């Protein structure tokens, strides 16, 4: 399994990561969303170097040029809600990608830091033999990513899986290594942190990505997550 950390080499990614982590700059929600989109664009570009291409002749006004186009059928899957701006960044570069969406959330045990991951909704095209990109900004424990992947497998077996995130933890990387196929999975992170706190948030991380992108959840929504599983 290939693990790629873009912050191992300084680039624009380093600048955007600095801005995303800064608790003062995070108060500008539009800027935060835009930087997440930008990182999705950069990851899409870097990831495309590992896609399969085919040669074709393109007619220009002055002749014929030998060009190359992506031959992979790409399916871009995103875990709601925090994944939406990340998804938009990828999709702005991967014009012809099909799209999949998975709704996953943490359901905490009352009065406890213990939680289970629940999936309540999925929309996905067939993925048999295609290149599957699963994008979620925070790869903290890896549980949401793995459950989303298992749900997506109901639509077929992909040729290759790209797991993409803004920040991953060491624990999540190890989890993905254990639960995803080793021979056809690539993990992409803009940066990798080394600790989780008692709530399984990445330290130093950047905080709750969903809240920073879209605003805090209401007390009613937080309470709902602690109730017995329900169906929408």
Describe the model.
The protein is an alpha/beta fold and 232 residues long. The protein is 31% helix and 33% strand. The chain is globular. The chain has a single domain (2-52, 71-207), classed as Rossmann fold, CATH 3.40.50. Strands 1, 4, 5, 6, 7, 8, 9 and 10 form an eight-stranded mixed beta sheet that branches. Strands 2-3 form a two-stranded antiparallel sheet. A two-stranded antiparallel sheet has the order 11-12. The longest helix has 20 residues, at 29-48. α4 (143-152) links the parallel β8 (138-139) and β9 (160-169). α1 packs antiparallel against α2 and α2 (29-48) packs across α3.
Return residue spans where pLDDT drops below 50 for at least 5 consecutive residues: 220-232
Rounded to the nearest angstrom, the radius of gyration is 18 Å
Quick one: CATH class? Alpha Beta
**CATH fold annotation:** Rossmann fold
Examine the secondary-structure arrangement and name the CATH architecture. 3-Layer(aba) Sandwich
SSE pattern: EHHEEEHEEEEHEHEEEHH
In total, how many domains does the architecture comprise?
Answer: 1
Q: What's the story with the biggest beta sheet?
A: 8 strands, mixed
Strand content: 25-35%
Helical percentage: 25-40%
| pLDDT averaged over residues | 90
In total, how many beta strands?
12
- Looking at the structure, what is the overall shape? globular
Distance between the termini: 36 Å
> Structural class of the secondary structure composition?
alpha/beta
Please work out how many helical segments DSSP would assign: 7
């Amino acid at each position: 399994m290939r693990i790629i950390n873009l912050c191992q080499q300084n680039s624009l990614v380093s600048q955007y990561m600095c801005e995303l982590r800064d608790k003062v700059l995070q108060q500008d929600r539009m800027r935060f969303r835009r930087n997440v989109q930008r990182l999705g664009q950069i990851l899409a570009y870097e990831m495309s170097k590992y896609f399969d291409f085919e040669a074709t002749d393109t007619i220009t006004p002055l002749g014929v040029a030998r060009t190359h186009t992506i031959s992979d059928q790409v399916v871009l899957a995103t875990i709601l809600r925090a994944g939406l701006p990340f998804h938009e960044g990828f999709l702005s570069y991967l014009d012809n990608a099909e799209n999949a969406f998975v709704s996953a959330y943490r359901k905490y045990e009352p009065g406890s830091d213990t939680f289970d991951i629940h999936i309540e909704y999925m929309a996905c095209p067939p993925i048999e033999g295609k290149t599957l990109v699963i994008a979620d900004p925070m790869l903290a424990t890896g549980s949401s990513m793995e459950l989303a992947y298992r749900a997506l497998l109901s639509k077929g077996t992909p040729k290759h899986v790209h797991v993409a995130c803004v920040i991953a933890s060491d624990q999540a990387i190890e989890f993905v290594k254990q639960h995803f196929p080793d021979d056809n999975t690539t993990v992409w992170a803009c940066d990798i942190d080394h600790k989780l706190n008692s709530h399984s948030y990445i330290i130093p991380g950047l905080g709750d990505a969903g809240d920073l992108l879209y605003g805090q959840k209401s007390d009613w929504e937080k309470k709902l997550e602690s109730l017995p599983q329900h169906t929408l």
